[in-house]
Design goal:
Layout (H helix, E strand, L loop, with lengths): L3 H9 L4 E5 L2 E4 L2 H26 L3 H13 L1 H23 L8 H7 L6 H9 L2 H9 L6 E4 L4 E5 L5 E5 L11 E6 L10 E7 L6 E6 L9 H14 L20 H7 L9 H16 L3 H24 L8
Antiparallel strand pairs: 1-2, 2-3, 3-4, 4-5, 6-7, 7-8
Helix pairs in contact: 2-7, 2-9, 3-4, 3-6
Amino acid sequence: MTSNTNKSRLKALAYSIRKRDDDEIEIRDSIYDGYIRGFLRLFILLGIIIIGSSRGSSIISDLERDYYWVFDEDKIITKSYNSYKKREIETAKILNQELDIYSYEEYKQSIYYPDNPVRDLILDVIWIPFVVFAFFSPRPRGIRINRKKRLIYWQTIFTSHSIAYVPDSGDPLGGLNYSRFGLYAFGEHERFSLQFWIDDYLSKRRTTAWFGVYPSPSAEHNGDIIRAMRAYLTEENPEFLNYIGNDFKNFGANLLITFSNAFALRVPFNRKKADNALEEALAIWSKKTDNQKQGWFNDMRGKQKIINENHKREELDNVVE
C-alpha cells in the first residue's frame, strides 16, 4: 500500500508530467517556462504598483484619460466643467454672492491641455503587449518519452529534434545523461532543476535543457521524475499514471507554482515532424551493429559516471535508485 508521503509525491508529479497518449508522456520545461514567466510576471506587477503609487493614480485611469484627450476630449472637459460649476455654485451660496461662472466654451478655452496627448497615449499603451506576453507567454515544449518506439526526444522551438535511444536491458535511461542538480534560481542549494543531455543522433551535437516544474514542490521531486520515467519504460501500468492528467497541473496549494505557470499559452507541437524524426532515428539505429549500439550506450554510461562523480565532490548524490 502506498504511504501518505509517497502518495503526496506521486500526486506532485502532475505538476511536471502529463500524458500525451497511451504510449507517450511529456515532462515540462522548467527554466524557460516557470522561472522566466514567473520572473516577468513579478517584475511587471511590481512595476505597475510602483508607477501607480508614484503617480497617485492607477495606470488604467491614466490610460483612460489619455485616450479621451485624443479621441473625445469633450468627455474630460465636460466632467471637469461640471465639477467647476458645482463648486462655484456652492461657493456663491456660502458667500451670498452673485453667481459668475464661465460658459462651457469659455471654460474650455481657459483650461490646460496636455502638450502631446498622442504621445502620452502611446506611452500608456506600449507596455500592454509586454504585460500580455508576461502573463500568457507560450509554454516551451518539454521532453517526451515514447515507450512504444522506445525513444526519448525533445522537439525544440525550431521543430528540430534531439533523440535518445532506450536500451533493451539495464537502465532504460541509459541512452541519455541527467543531473538532478541542474540550474535553479533561488534554490539555496536544496532545490534544483532536472537537467538532461542528449547526444543527438543526426547532428552529433550534445544538447541540454532543464525540466520539471519551477518552483519545485520538494527537494525529492527530480528523483521522483527519474523513477517515473524508468517505470513508464519498464512497467505496463506504473502507479504514477493514476495521478497525472492530459495537461500539467497548475493550480494547487503551492501558490508560487500557480503564479509562475498558470494561463500559459501552448506552443503547437508538430506531430508529423516528430513522427518522421522518430522513424528516421529508428531507421539509422537499425543499421547499427550490436557492438555499435552497445558502444554508444557504454559511452553514455561513461559520461553519466563523470557527472555523478562531479556531483559527489559537491557532496550531492546524483544516483537515483
